[in-house]
Amino acid sequence: MSRQSISKKRINTQILVILMFCTLAMSGQSFSQWEERSAAIMGTNIRAEVYHESEQLRNQALSAVMMQMEEINQLMSPYIDSSELSLLNREAATRKVVVSDELFYLLALSARLSELTKGAFDITFASVGYMYDYKEQQRPDQAQIDGKLQAIDYRHVQLDPANNSVRFAHHDLKIDLGGIAKGYAVDLAIERLKALGIEHALVTAGGDTRLLGDRLGKPWIVGIRDPRDEEKQAVVIPLESAAMSTSGDYERYFEEDGKRYHHIISPRTGESVYEVQSVSIIGPESVYNDALSTAVFVMGLENGIGLINGLPEFEAIVMDNERRMHYSSGLQQ
Ligand code: ADP
Ligand code: MG
User: Could you report the average pLDDT of every consecutive run of 10 residues in the chain (333 residues)?
Assistant: First the structure.
């Protein structure tokens, strides 16, 4: 090897080291202004990332996100006996029950979304849905489903805005907000961040993600996982100041005789639906995305994408049961 090539190599190495050092120093600087926190709340993984110069404010902001999630959980969890939702399911069939503004708002919005989706999104699915236990691999038989199917109808939930009261017009009625409450909580968390002066953040609760601003001059990259491979992303999407929710048949399910019993239930049949494997909805707010992703899953490919094509603020990405991807009209060039 000649002397010249050795010294060239040395210089190249020096440049590389300097470059690496600069990159580390720069990323160190911006990384130190980002802070991240995760917690297990609402039966799912909550994660938030915020950007701010003040470390104190970053920590305050992350605590505010987690407190918001916990508040909604305490109000709306079907697994907490003292939640307002549990109280409704125990007593609203026999008397008018007065609830918080938050729960009343979400019940009213759920009713509007049931109208919009022609009953595909319906929180009263739980009248049958409560008989499924995915962890315990339990499901109702046909006679049990038939016995409760009449109770499923969002019109049975009577709301009186004069005093925030709720009455169930069917004795077997049960509700569950699993298809909308996480999205709502994400929106409330983002509002809290804005109020604290945060301008760049990500909040995600299971399949519901909302982004405040961008990632400092770059978009956020949000993934849709492969429904049959936890390790793989089916699609990644750059987004800023927007939100995306995904509903999939892989979140909660068990298999029996080769059939997958999963947590998205047709209000018409009281059983899981099989036309698609995953639905993602992109739109301005998580509460709508969350409910619409569940609804489009139930409606299936054609009706579901048809619904979204009629809503200018929303886009859909659907993987059908043969793993083909489909996009709403706004995503097709
Ligand atoms: P997750 O983010 O938990 O996967 P999804 O947004 O995919 O939730 O919604 C699934 C949840 O929605 C179910 O676990 C159940 O609580 C609720 N759900 C299931 N079917 C319906 C339906 N037809 N209408 C409204 N909510 C539903
Ligand atoms: Mg949903």
Answer: 49 55 50 92 96 98 98 98 98 98 98 98 98 97 98 98 98 98 98 98 97 97 96 96 97 95 98 98 98 98 98 98 97 85
- The neighbour count for residue 165, using CB atoms within 10 Å, is 16
pLDDT of residue 136: 97
pLDDT for 1 equals 42
CA distance 281 to 224: 11
Query: In Å, how far are 147, 182, 239, 283, 297 from 277, measured between CA atoms?
Result: 28, 20, 23, 20, 8
Q: Which residues pair with 210 in a beta bridge?
A: 203, 243
Return d(Cα 111, Cα 117) in angstroms, integer. Answer: 10
pLDDT of residue 328: 98
The number of the ligand 1 atom at minimal distance from the alpha carbon of 121 is 24
The one-character DSSP state at 12 is: H
Is there a contact between 310 and 302 (Cβ–Cβ < 8 Å)?
Answer: no
**For ligand 1, which residues put their CB under 6 angstroms from it?**
121-123, 125, 176, 178-179, 182, 206-207, 247, 251-252, 263-265, 267, 290, 293-294, 298
Instruction: Determine which residue's CA is closest to atom 3 belonging to ligand 1.
Output: 178
Model pTM score:
0.91
**Domains in the chain, please, with CATH?**
79-168 (1.10.3980.10), 214-333 (3.10.520.10)
Nearest CA to ligand 1 atom 11: 179
Site to substitute for ligand 1 among 208, 273, 280, 294, most atoms within 8 A of C-beta: 294
Distance CA 196, CA 62 (A): 11
Q: Give me the amino acid identity at 321.
A: N
Q: Please state whether beta strands 34-41 and 44-51 pair in parallel, antiparallel, or not at all (unpaired).
A: antiparallel
Protein residue with its CA nearest to atom 15 in ligand 1: 178
